[in-house]
Design brief:
single chain, 340 residues, Rossmann fold, 5-stranded parallel sheet, globular, binds N-carbamoyl-L-aspartate, aspartate carbamoyltransferase activity
C-alpha cells in the first residue's frame, strides 16, 4: 500500500449496499503504517465503519472474498489479532487457515523462508504474518506473490493495530485532527507505538509519548523533532491535557535487564492508577482510555481505568474485526493490486 492509486469497487460496495459503492485501493501489501497516506487511511476507516454494520447483523457474512484463501501465520502468541483476522476473513467468506510457530514445522527447524514458500505453494491469496523479527513481513513480501499483511513484526510495526486505534478513538472523539493523544509506557519494546505515531500524524493528531527514561527508545529525540511529537517523563504533567490516554503493556518477554526498579515504582510513576483516572476525569470528562491488550492489570493500568466508562478497550477489540475486514477488502477484493 505504498502508492496512492484508487479505483471504484463493484457497484454493490463492500457491505453490499447499492448506494454505497466505495473507493478501493489496489495495493498488494500492508507492511507498514507509512504505506498509507491520509486518503488511504480514510478509505480504510470508512469501509471499516460499513463493516462494523455487518458485525451488528444477525447473519454476519458477505460474499466479498468467496474463493479466496487467507493464511494467518503466527510465530508469536496472539489472542486478539489472530482471532480477529480469522473472524474478519470468515465474515468476508474467505477460506481462512491458521498456522502457528508452535505445532508447525518451524519447531523442527524449518526456516521462515521455507515455511512461507511451502504455504504459498498451496495457492494462498494472502498471508497475515506475525513474527518476532523486525522486517519479517517486508522480507516475506519479497519471497512470495501473495498479499502480505504485517500483524506485528518484532518491535517494529503493527499497522492494523494503529488503524483500529484510530477508528475507535474517532468514533468517540470525532475527527482526530488537533486532538491530543498521550501514549504511555514501554515505548522501547512497542510496535504499537511506532505504527500509532505514523497513523496519528497522518490524521493530524497531536501526540505526546510518556515513559521513564529507561523505556524511551534510542533515537526517539530526533524522531520526535522530525515528526513533531513531544516526549515527557512526567505523566501527571501531561495527563490533564489528554483527549486520549493510550496505555502500553510492559513487555517483560522482550526485556533482558531491569528497565525499572520494581513493579510498584513503575506503577507509581507511569501507571494509570485510580488517582490518575480521577485527575483525567476532572480535567476532561470526555477523555478516553485505550490499551491494545493484553493488559497487565495493576501494573500499567488499574481495574477502575480499564473497566470504567472512559475505557475504549473492548471497543478496540470489536473494531479490530471491522478494520481487518476493511483491510482484507481493500487488498484482496476485485483486482490483483499493484506492486508496492
Ligand atoms: C500488541 C502486540 O502484540 O504488539 N497487542 C496486540 O496486538 N493486541 C501489544 C502487546 O503485545 O502488548
Amino acid at each position: 500500500m505504498s502508492t496512492a492509486t484508487t479505483t471504484t469497487t463493484t457497484p454493490s460496495g463492500p457491505a453490499g449496499r447499492e448506494q454505497q459503492a466505495s473507493t478501493r485501493h489496489t495495493k498488494r501489501h500492508l507492511l507498514s503504517s507509512a504505506d498509507l497516506n491520509r486518503e488511504q487511511v480514510r478509505a480504510i476507516l470508512d469501509t471499516a465503519s460499513e463493516m462494523h454494520g455487518v458485525q451488528q447483523r444477525e447473519v454476519k457474512k458477505l460474499p466479498t472474498l468467496r474463493g479466496r484463501t487467507v493464511v494467518n501465520l503466527f510465530f508469536e502468541d496472539s489472542t486478539r489479532t489472530r482471532s480477529s483476522f480469522e473472524i474478519a476473513g470468515k465474515w468476508l467468506s474467505a477460506d481462512v487457515i491458521n498456522i502457528s510457530g508452535k505445532g508447525s514445522s518451524t519447531s523442527k527447524g524449518e526456516s521462515l523462508r521455507d515455511t512461507v514458500l511451502t504455504v504459498a505453494a498451496m495457492g494462498v491469496d494472502a498471508l497475515v504474518i506475525r513474527h518476532h523479527a523486525s522486517g519479517a513481513a517486508q522480507q516475506v513480501s519479497q519471497w512470495v506473490d501473495a498479499h502480505i499483511i504485517n500483524a506485528g513484526d518484532g518491535m517494529h510495526e503493527h499497522p492494523t493495530q494503529a488503524l483500529l486505534d484510530a477508528y475507535t478513538m474517532e468514533r468517540r472523539l470525532g475527527d482526530l485532527e488537533g486532538r491530543h493523544v498521550v501514549i504511555v509506557g514501554d515505548l522501547t519494546h512497542s510496535r504499537v507505538v511506532r505504527s500509532n505515531l505514523i497513523t496519528l500524524k497522518t490524521l493530524g493528531a497531536r501526540v505526546t509519548l510518556v515513559a521513564p527514561p529507561t523505556l524511551m527508545p534510542s533515537g526517539i529525540t530526533s524522531w520526535a523533532q522530525a515528526d513533531g511529537f513531544t516526549l515527557s517523563n512526567d505523566f501527571d504533567a501531561v495527563l490533564p491535557t489528554a483527549d486520549s490516554v493510550m496505555m502500553l503493556r510492559v513487555q517483560r518477554e522482550r526485556m533482558s535487564g531491569g528497565f525499572f526498579p520494581t513493579a510498584r515504582e513503575y506503577t507509581v510513576g507511569y501507571g494509570l492508577t485510580r488517582a490518575r483516572l480521577d485527575a483525567l476525569t476532572a480535567a476532561n470528562p470526555d477523555a478516553v482510555i485505550c490499551h491494545p491488550g493484553p493488559m497487565n492489570r495493576g501494573l500499567e493500568i488499574a481495574a477502575d481505568a480499564a473497566d470504567g466508562a472512559q475505557s475504549l478497550i473492548l471497543d478496540q477489540v470489536s473494531a479490530g474485526v471491522a478494520v481487518r475486514m476493511s483491510v482484507l477488502y481493500h487488498l484482496l477484493a476485485g483486482g490483483e493490486g499493484e506492486d508496492s
